[in-house]
UniProtKB/TrEMBL annotation:
Gene: agphd1
Organism: Sipha flava (yellow sugarcane aphid)
Reaction catalyzed: (5R)-5-hydroxy-L-lysine + GTP = (5R)-5-phosphooxy-L-lysine + GDP + H(+)
Subcellular location: Cytoplasm
Entry protein name: Hydroxylysine kinase
Lineage: Eukaryota, Metazoa, Ecdysozoa, Arthropoda, Hexapoda
One CC-aspect GO term: cytoplasm
Amino acid sequence: MADLTENICAMVDKQLIEDILKNDYGFINGKIRELDGYDDKNYHITEIEKHIEGIEFPVDGIVLKFINSIDSKNLSLLEAQTKLTQYLENFGIICPTPLLNKYRQSYGSVIINDKMHAVRAYRYIRGETMNNVIVNSEISTDFGSYVGHLTSILKEFNHDGFHRNDFLWALEKSPEVLKYVDVFNQEKQQIITTILNKFQSTVLSKSHNFTKSVIHGDLNMNNIILKDKKIHGIIDIGDVIYSFTIFDFSVSLCYLILHEFRNNNAKLSDVKIKSFVDAYENHYEKLNSLEYSVIHVSDYAP
């Protein structure tokens, strides 16, 4: 299990970014904009002045990703992520695909504060995140269809690199939060403890009955890219893991509900749950009685 007190993020400055762009990719003097991230650092690079290594610069730019020091040690994971993007691309799924550096490699590495960080350049996917739109029945249906379709594709893919039992962000690791619950006030401690104990007793205790496959792991609204109000692609494959197939459905539904409840006056009846579920089942398979029985608890855990 990872040490939660360890700083695993790369400490990055503009000069380091420019050096990597020039030395590994031959890109000179691009515009740099930092993007959101948790354990990884991400920078959108656009409008380079020139390229000197013969590597074509994508029209929409690239994302230069500095991977956290823990995942950077896992070479099998890095390989799995590369293979997965190639696999998804073959099925027409728009996702961040690596841009090979001048050494014909999908990633390089850099030492920062005595820690090794893998560095990748991904093709930037232009569009609007689902977090920035009002989710009506049409978008909810599209979301359910997309999650179902993605699930059916991922179910046929496997790689040892995604079998990471110590990955803290996996949904089945949610009860680990109980070790740190004392940082919250008493009311929140009670809520968190109740939910996670319920998750353990209702979901994890029955997990041997659930199908497992490779899942995206974080299908939240900021990782879904839309164009013209239609889902165009997904980003952020950093949480992909071999886990319980139902969890991608549960996480997606959870974020669909949370998205609606950004409005303080929202009601659960405002969430387009039925259109999402129906579309998911039409593009993947019908949920069985056991899966239906644990959805409400699984949706609380993320």
